[in-house]
Every structure is written in structure tokens, then in C-alpha cells.
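Alpha/beta hydrolase
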Amino acid sequence: MPRHRRGRGGTPVIERLRRDGYPVRAIANPLHGLTSDTAYVTSYLSTIDGPKVLVGHSYGGAVITNAATAVTGVESLVYIAGFIPAAGETIGELAARSTPALPLIATQVPGGTEVVIDPAGFRAAFAGDLDATTAADLAVTQRPADTRAVTDPSVTEGFRTIPSWALIPRQDHAINPAVQRFMTSRAGARTTEVDGSHAIMLSRPDAVTRLIEQAAR
């Protein structure tokens, strides 16, 4: 389950999947750029034997799209409020379709630029259906992403040959639901919509778990 920005964002879903008998690996997405992150996740996946269901939230959707066909045993893809880029497309191009734009803070670091969501606007953009304390905790623990995450072009369209599922939160203010519908329709994903924010795996973990288990079956 390549994650997006928070270290424990998928924990309620992981707990439910384990309770139902599914082995889970939560891959820490490096957020160094789509090309680099895809290589990292592909390398990790190659160490796992047997059938695999890849789950990607937000930017993680782009990573699993590119990594899925490079290893054996991937039986399905699950996009949770996820980006599903076509070959040659960048996350930046898809994100530009969402309005209003995410409130980002950029920082120059050795070798490039990193961004985070402005903590002041984090809850409204990312976690509107979570309580203020939880949203504030997520805001201050988010990991910065290299801007290459949005500028590296996507290369492989895993959804063309691997069945895909998608969950769209109707109150998502990070990736406009209309943009998500465009991507899921283009990918031919079996799509479910629920009320919730971009942090849907925390606010609606049961819905996320159900979709993953549908894909696994």
C-alpha cells in the first residue's frame, strides 16, 4: 500500500484487513519523484511472493500505476482518492485541473525543491471530515514531497492490463472529484463514491477496506 504523506494514515484500514485475514505491507513512499519512487516500490514488490493487490492513495496511485507491470503477481489495482495518470502525463497537469489549488509551501533544499500543504489550510483541503486535533496532527507530521513528484511524466499504464478499482470521496478538496471521475472512467476502474474528504482512509476506513477486499476477491 504505497502511502501518500503521513506515516500512520492507513493504520485503521491495515487493522481491518489483518482482522479479515489479509497479509499487509505498507510501503513508505519516498516522495522523491515519480520515476525514483516507482523504481523503489518496484524493487520492494519484487521481494514479495504470491498474488498482490496494490493500493495507492493520492500520489500513490501514480506510483502503483507505473510499478504494477514491472513485477509478477499483481492481480488488481486499487485507487483511493488517487491519481491515475496516462503515459506521458504528469501529476502536475492533472492537479492543475482541480480548483482551488492546494495551499502549498515550497522550500529550497539541496538538489531541488520540496513542498508541503500549508498547515493553516490543511484541514480544509485534506481532512475536512476529521476532528480539528487529528487534522492538526496530520498537518504537522506530513512528509515533504520533492517537486519531481508532479513534474516527472508517467510512463506505464498498469490499468490497461490489470483490473482496477477506485474510491472517490465526494467532498475531496485535494483532488477534485470531477477530475477523479475523469481518471477512473479513462482507466475503466470499478468505481465507488462515498461522502468524505481526501483523508478517506481515516474517516471512512470501513468503506476503503470493503473496496480493497472486493479487489482481492
